[in-house]
Amino acid sequence: MAITDIQAFAHLTAADIETLGQELDSIRRSVEQSRGARDAKYIRRTIAAQRGLEVAGRAVLFGSRNRWAWLTGTALLSVAKIIENMELGHNVSHGQWDWMNDPEIHSSSWEWDMTGPSSQWRRAHNYSHHTYTNVLGKDEDLGFGILRMTRDEPWKPIHLVQPVANLVLAATFEWGIALHDWSIEKELADTPRWEVMSPPNVEFGRKIARQVTKDFLLYPALTGPAFKSTLKANATANLIRNLWAYAVIFCGHFPDGAEKFTIEQLEGETSGEWYLRQMLGSANFKAGPAMAFMSGNLCYQIEHHLFPDLPSNRYPEIAVRVRELCDKYDLPYTTGSLGKQYLLAFRTIHKLALPDRFLKATSDNAPETSSERKFAGITLPSLPSAETAHWLGVDPETGQRRGLRSALREAKVVLKEKAQQEKEMLREAKRALKEKAEHEKVVLREATQALQDRARQEQASLRRKAVREKALWRLRRSR
User: Fold this and answer.
1) Which of 389, 354, 418, 194 is nearest to 186 (CA)?
2) Tens-place pLDDT, residues 146-187
3) 3-class SS at 160?
4) Which spans of this chain does the record mark as coiled coil (predicted)?
5) Range 457-461, long-range pairs (CB < 8 A, 24+ positions)
6) Is residue 19 classed as helix, strand or coil in its secondary structure?
7) In the beta sheet, which residues pair with residue 135?
8) Which residues contact 439 (CB under 8 A, 6 or more apart)?
9) In this structure, are residues 63 and 226 in contact, taking their beta carbons and an 8 Å threshold?
10) φ/ψ of residue 365, rounded to 5
11) What is the pTM of this model?
12) Cβ atoms of residues 405 and 327 within 8 Å
């Protein structure tokens, strides 16, 4: 199962977790107090750059019947759509810039360049996902309702096609997100299925009509003779934006190390435990300034989940302090290259398409799903006692705290030794079986030889008896 006791899993005391939460609160306050002109300049320049790229791209597409004009215009438009989606639409809708009190750059008024209404995304995403990050049965973004991303979810035959469903989702990511948020919106509003003209349906339909008209009718029509080539360029730009957004989101939520949690973990969850759940349930990927910008700084997914409403341009500096806290409390800081993180998620998608009987690991100790029960018989209990106090708190020898990272390292060593022992035992068992087989072979050979000797003796005895009887018969006959 997923994690039911985050304190036990993290190998921290309640006091440790409370102090961790206070230190993260301190980071939040320091960023909030330092927000100002530099941040406002950043977001306004980003908006201006994005709009400039879009205008340039659409202008170049007037000549899109020329191959190079088509490629250039499509590239410019793709970059513009990515920036609008990741660094603007996503982050503005999170309320990261509400502190500016600028009605144009406010979560309540910003409408992003995606199929689904940003208002529906805000309600579904900010409530369902960021409140209940990776909690089974609560976080609707855990697999987006079509992918099995943890073996805690029972396998169904439909999951066999999830490798194909994953490709479709990647190519049509904006539509997948829109439909996903629309269904959550209707559920939250308790809208009857038969009510076609319900507010969620009307809002959703209007946004679809606007997006389809803009990208596939209006802008292509404005280019006149280049209508078809512009239409293809718009579709290609949307596809590129979808694939990039999909990759960024999956790299931040589904690599190994992004833990899952049960509803039981929510019972009495403290602020510190909420912070800890965000840290353990998210993953980063390594990126330079350009890639970070193009990802909406969601390469810092851990920091985003800790502080979803703080300005994204501050995530790099926040990440330094969060990593220091991970070192201080001996917690893992899950990160890796973009390629590595995606391949881990890709492996999970294909692996969990299969029934559980084809999977080796358990739901307590699998790469994509683990729990505090993975440490059973490996590390010491989570709460300190006279016998186990040395496992928690500060190591008296090194002066360093021993937490989850040490526990994972210890477990890895123990499991490796256990696997080696089992391998040696298997080798010994094979050797014993081989010796037993050899012994039985010798015994069988000796038994066979004995039977053959006995048979020969009996045959010789019968021959001698036959000779005697024949001699007696001749003797009687001669008389």
Assistant:
1) 194
2) 999 999 999 999 999 999 999 999 999 999 999 988 888 877
3) helix
4) 404-454
5) none
6) helix
7) 261
8) none
9) yes
10) -150, 50
11) 0.85
12) no
